[in-house]
Automatic annotation (TrEMBL):
Positions of region (Disordered): 290-315
Name of the protein described by the UniProt record: DUF4238 domain-containing protein
Biological source species: Streptomyces botrytidirepellens
Regions of compositional bias (Polar residues) in chain numbering: 304-315
C-alpha cells in the first residue's frame, strides 16, 4: 500500500466529531464505563475499515477516497450553514444533507454488524430455497410438496457458514448498495427533515453517528434497517438534532427539549458499537447507560409448510445506480459472487 494511502478510516466524519470536541478532544465512554479524553483524530475510527483488499495500489483506498471527496467534502459547508442557523435549506443543500445521513447509516460498524447478522440468518434460507430449485432442475420435474419441505430442511442444515464465503469485498459492496435504499427511504414522499435546536449542550454522539428509532419507541436493529414508520436521529452538534421523520410526528417551534434529547441519547447508547462521545465540558447525561454488548438481531423462528405453487426466486433486487462515481466503485468491487 502506498505511502499516501489512508489506513485510519473514520466511521463518523472528522467534521462531525469536531463539533463534540473542545481543544481538539472529546470525552469517550466505553461499555466498561471507562472514560478517556480522546483526540478527534483517534475517535470513531478503524484501520482499513473501507480498504478493498483485493485491489492494488491507490485503488485499495477507492471507497475511503470516495467518502472523503464525494460525501464529507460536500457535506461540510451544509453542516456549517445549519450550525450557523441557516434553516430551512435550499433544495440542492437539502439533497446533500439527505445523502449525508443515508451514508452515515451504512458506513459504520453498526451497519456492518447488521449486514453480517442478517447474512448469518438469511444465507441458510436462500441456500435451502435455491437447493429446491436445483433439485427440480436436476430431476426435470416439479418436486412434490412434501419433497420440497424435505429438501429445504436438509439444505438448510447443511448451509455454509456466512463468514467463510471468501468474498472480502462483500461488506463494502453491501454498504454501497444499502446507501441507495437508505437514500430512497429518506426521500420518500411525505417524509420530513426537521432541525431542533437547544441553547445549551444536551446531545451525545455514538460511534455510529445516527440512530433509528422505531414506531414503538425502541432502537432495535432488527430488519428492515430503516422502516417507513421509523425516525432517523442525527445529533450534528451538542445543540443541534436532525430528525428524518414520517409525517405522523410533528415537532413544534424547532426547539430541542431535554425530553427529546434524552430519546436521542438513548438511541446513541443503543446503537454504539464501542463508544459514545460528548463535549468535555458537558456532564454525562443522567440515567444513560451503555449495554454490555452491541445490538443483536434475534434468530428467526422458521415454519416451513408444503406448497403446490412453483418455487419463488431469492434473487436480490438492486436499485439503479445513477451516481457515476458510485457506479464505478461497484464495478470495481463486483465479483461473480455478486
Amino acid at each position: 500500500m502506498g505511502k499516501n494511502t489512508p489506513k485510519d478510516h473514520h466511521l463518523v466524519p472528522r467534521l462531525w466529531l469536531r463539533e463534540f470536541a473542545e481543544d481538539g478532544h472529546l470525552i469517550g465512554r466505553w461499555r466498561s464505563g471507562a472514560e478517556h479524553r480522546t483526540p478527534v483524530r483517534a475517535a470513531a475510527k478503524k484501520k482499513h475499515f473501507n480498504t478493498d483488499r483485493v485491489a492494488e495500489g491507490g485503488q485499495r483506498a477507492a471507497v475511503e477516497t470516495f467518502l472523503a471527496r464525494e460525501v464529507d467534502d460536500r457535506a461540510a459547508p451544509v453542516l456549517r450553514a445549519i450550525r450557523r442557523g441557516q434553516w430551512p435549506l435550499a433544495e440542492a443543500e437539502r439533497r446533500v444533507l439527505v445523502d449525508t445521513l443515508a451514508w452515515q447509516l451504512v458506513r459504520t460498524q453498526a451497519f456492518r454488524s447488521w449486514d453480517e447478522q442478517v447474512g448469518t440468518h438469511l444465507l441458510p434460507l436462500f441456500w435451502a430455497a435455491e437447493a429446491v430449485g436445483r433439485w427440480q432442475a436436476r430431476l426435470g420435474r416439479e418436486l412434490e410438496p412434501w419433497e420440497r419441505v424435505e429438501v429445504f430442511w436438509i439444505a438448510y442444515h447443511q448451509a455454509p457458514d456466512v463468514t467463510g464465503t471468501g468474498d472480502p469485498r462483500s461488506p463494502l459492496r453491501a454498504a454501497l448498495r444499502a446507501f441507495q435504499h437508505a437514500q430512497a427511504a429518506l426521500n420518500a414522499p411525505g417524509r420530513e427533515l426537521v432541525l431542533l435546536r437547544a441553547n445549551v449542550p444536551l446531545l451525545v454522539l455514538s460511534d455510529s453517528g445516527v440512530t433509528v428509532r422505531r414506531k414503538d419507541g425502541t432502537y432495535s436493529i432488527t430488519p428492515p434497517l430503516l422502516p417507513a414508520t421509523a425516525q432517523l436521529l442525527a445529533p450534528v452538534s451538542p445543540t443541534h438534532l436532525l430528525i428524518s421523520t414520517p409525517p405522523t410526528t410533528r415537532y413544534q417551534h424547532g426547539r430541542l427539549t431535554r425530553r427529546i434529547a434524552a430519546k436521542a441519547n438513548r438511541g446513541a447508547a443503543a446503537w454504539c458499537q464501542e463508544a459514545v462521545y460528548r463535549l468535555p465540558s458537558m456532564p454525562w447525561p443522567p440515567h444513560l447507560h451503555l449495554a454490555e454488548a452491541p445490538p443483536q438481531i434475534p434468530a428467526p423462528r422458521l415454519t416451513v409448510t408444503p406448497s403446490d405453487g412453483p418455487a419463488t426466486s431469492t434473487a436480490t433486487e438492486h436499485l439503479h445506480v445513477r451516481h457515476p462515481g458510485l457506479r464505478a466503485l461497484l464495478e470495481q468491487l463486483s465479483t461473480d459472487a455478486d
